[in-house]
Amino acid sequence: MTDRFQVLKNAVPFNLLPDEVLMGVVDLLEEVKYTKDTTVYHQEVSKLRGVDIIAAGEYESFFYDSAQNKRLLEHHRTGYCYGGISVLLNRRKSLRTVIAKKGTVVYFLHRRDFRALCQAYDAFFHFFTTDYGKRMLNDEFAHFAKRPAAFEESYIASEQLYSRKIESLEYREIVACPPETPVYQVAQMMAEHKVSCSFVEEEPGKIIGFVTDITLRDNVVAKQADAQQPVKSFMDNPIVTINAQAYIYEAILLMFQTNTRYLLVEQNGQFKGFLSRNRLLSEQAQSPFMFIQSVKLALSLDELKGKWQKVPEIVTQLLSRGVNAEIVNQVITTVADTIALKVIQGVLDEMGTPPAKFVFMVLGSEGRKEQTLKTDQDNAIIYEDKANEQRELVREYFLKFADLISERLDKIGFSFCTGGLMAKNPKWTHSLSHWKRNYESWMQEIVPETVMNFSTFFDCRYLYGEKAIMDELQSFLNQELQKPMEQLYFHLAKNALQYEPPLTFFRNIRTFTVGSQEVFNIKKAMTPIVDLVRVYALQNRIFVTNTGERLAALKEKGIFTEKQYLELIQSYYYLMSVRLKKQANQITRDKAEPENYMDVRSLTKIEQVTIIEIFKIIKDFQAGIRLKFTNNLFG
Q1: What is the pLDDT of residues 536-591, one digit of tens each?
Q2: What CDD domains does the database record attribute to this sequence (predicted)?
Q3: What is the dihedral of CA 15, 18, 20, 24, to 10 degrees?
């Protein structure tokens, strides 16, 4: 208490306040510690919850210009108050970027309390307005204060968001309790530690569930449940973990994909703390992840349609910042998943409780998490097997369920699949036993159609429902693939050789004419990579669906060398970047439907040369797969 009072007493302009007021302010302060080189605020991005008074260490504040140079660099030490001008005069947005140096400790004062002091004490308020006025006499300060660097050019976009790791964040300490703890004691413990989540620990290091403020509200208070009952009766699961070496964007995407609000951070086999979705999102004020959060809050089909129509703008921004196409794919897929989940939940609310457990899965590019802006519906439903007298009732429910979902997704902007590969088609909504027979017949009766079906449905990914059903199907497939399958791999390899890179005899890009343009189909040019990686993944029973993840797993198993891995993954995502950029421009600039035709004349010389080299790499890999699986080097 004495230390805090002394810091305030020596801090400008808090030293203008009476001692009795300072004593009251001391009780309102929250101590925050920062590790070395933590970026505390980003100019014109971070919204301040209040002001910081430095108790120990140092803040470095500055403006970033468009070339990422630090301008008007200042160092602030003990007794300095940061945030007053931003809270009062800049719509709560941090005017400058602030980095904390090693061993920095600040006392945080909430903006409501800070504003109350400003209203009660004129001298205190005028200190900040006067300081701002003096600073605005400096032409360079005025330039940046009036014209902040655009977010697209800001440091957070190019450096912080996509290159910063989880380990750089401050984790919340894990508050845990045994499964038999009465729920009222858990609530007391959460209040005491000021956390919104308590974990349930069966034994040291073995966490089996968690309880949140929302859990207590919805499952205990709202239902007037007995608060003496053990917490295991109310806990949520599953537990979702992430390694401390993962990137921040991966953590946020994982939270959206698993629909969890909390992540346990793991390092060297031990839990180091946890992160909340609100905490992560608050640091990404204008990032795509806040947009995804807004999709989750949408209330109508029209609103969801409007959100989907904004995705091309986000794609353009990300690509212009140099963000890897793999991340852009994940952002698109996460938005699409979020919209689909909203639609599914809305249909369930209307139709009532399903008569059987089920899984709604996505296929094709969405199943691989490689969606582009030219996309249609690829999905299917698996429901649990029921007794004979219930089968028709169950099937009738899920066919209607699938029909409503597909119709609504179509209205939002996800058009019907021209090949009919969607749950709306009765062929792709069936029981688990029927789906097992599907896979079995595809593997045994090898014709072009069954090979195509098998390829598409091997790229299936869980989206909603009872995950155990999908796990059982995957276990069945794993067992089947351990049998001799030479014919299956032969035909899958032939399928992977169906599209050859469009190269002329003189190693130029082969084109065809569409209207007045000389074009090639970039989707078909990329397809061989997807197909050949899938064949190797199948042979090695690798069940991740994403092409990049499959490549990493194949490298891990020694199937591909480091050089081969880099050649394929860099080639694939380079082509994906070109494809996404073209589609985004067609939608945002030309107001046209996106397509996969690339006009060679729209490519720079460097892009043309790079794509030609990529096509050569693909041809070399196709030669390898031709020899390995078809025993014929020449086709």
Answers
A1: 999 899 999 999 999 999 999 999 999 999 999 999 999 999 999 999 988 887 77
A2: CAP_ED, NT_GlnE_GlnD_like
A3: -50
The DSSP string of 131-186 is: HHHHHTTSHHHHHHHHSPPPGGGSHIIIIIHHH-BGGGSPPBPP-EE-TTSBHHHH
In the predicted structure, residue 65 carries a pLDDT above the cut 90: no
List the one residue out of 378, 374, 424 whose CA is nearest residue 398: 424
Instruction: List the beta bridge partners of residue 564.
Output: none
**Quick one: which of 179, 48, 42, 182 has its CA closest to 115?**
48
CATH topology of domain 492-631: Four Helix Bundle (Hemerythrin (Met), subunit A) (1.20.120)
Q: 172, 380, 412: which is closest to 274 by C-alpha?
A: 172
Nearest-angstrom CA–CA distance, 161 and 150 = 16
Q: What is the DSSP pairing of strand 176-177 with strand 197-203? A: parallel
Helix pair 562-588, 605-630: axis angle to 10 deg? 130
Give me the residues paired with residue 465 across strands: 359
* Residue of higher predicted confidence among 578 and 448: 578
CB-based burial label for 498 (10 Å; 0-12, 13-18, 19+): exposed
Q: Where are the domains of the chain?
A: 1-145, 163-283, 288-477, 492-631
Q: Amino acid letter at 301?
A: L
- The pTM of the full predicted model, rounded to 2 decimals, is 0.63
Fold of 163-283: CBS-domain (3.10.580)
Peptide bond into 501 cis (omega under 30): no
3-state class (DSSP) for residue 565:
helix
Contact between 533 and 554 under an 8 Å Cβ cutoff? The reply is yes
